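Q: Got a minute? One more chain.
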Amino acid sequence: LGGAALVLACRLLPRSWQDGATPAVPRGWRERWQRWAEGNPVQRAARRRHLLDQNPVLWLASRQGGQRLAIWLLVGLAVVVWIGISGVGRWQALSSTWLTGMAYGFSLVLTWGMKIGVAAHAAYAFAAARRSGAFELLLATPLTTQQIIRGHFQAVRSVWLGPALAVLGLNLLVGLSAVAMPLTVGTVFVMLGSVVASAYGSVRFLCDLLAVFWVASWFGLRDGKANAATIKTILYSQVLPGILLCVPGVIPDLIFIAWAHDRLRYGFRDAVQKPLDVRGEWVGTMAAKKPSSAP
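A: Always. Here it is, folded:
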């Protein structure tokens, strides 16, 4: 019996010492989501080559393509929620005052969510690159400061521009539906005023997005802390001007855009070379931990 086993082992060993074909393993939800959001590996490689040809920093900052699909899904969910709210309100025969209040409340939540999202995205991109040392490496290449900043701006724009325009269209629709009434001489002026107010709100919304991007980018670069940069951006550029300054919202936005853009353009190298606080911060994962002083 032992001899038979030895002969069998000698016969099977030359054929079984090499690795066989790996059986197919079901993909996890992360891989399925990536394939659904960004396409198959061939499509992803072609897209990344296209981004690399445009701007290396754009290629570096656009690695997470699933963000765009996630934001579009949230915008679609908001549309469904608004349709449901409007349908329930009309089914319950609520007054026009209630419908108008719900419309503007819904619009307020949607636009503020978009502004916070843009601020968080910009702050995290600059803070993460600052903490990882990516900016130091990029400054050692022939890339200019303007190209580095432009690459990050293009990356954020590629994710948020489409949803922002969709939110603008939804806000216009919400504003018009809130004042929908039979056409008469008086109601025409009411609807015209609503259109003008919605148009001004759209311009202000776009200026708000630009302001929070530039301010969050500067705070994220200077401090290297995404959460703190996001909070300071919303507080300084959106909340305090409305409380302390009784002026239209577009004017503070333009001031903040000019200030933050100037700081990024002329203070980028100085901010990168400045020693960074090593205390960690929660930004989805712990970015860094303070080294222990124990031997």
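A: The chain has eleven helices and no strands.
Q: Perfect, thanks.
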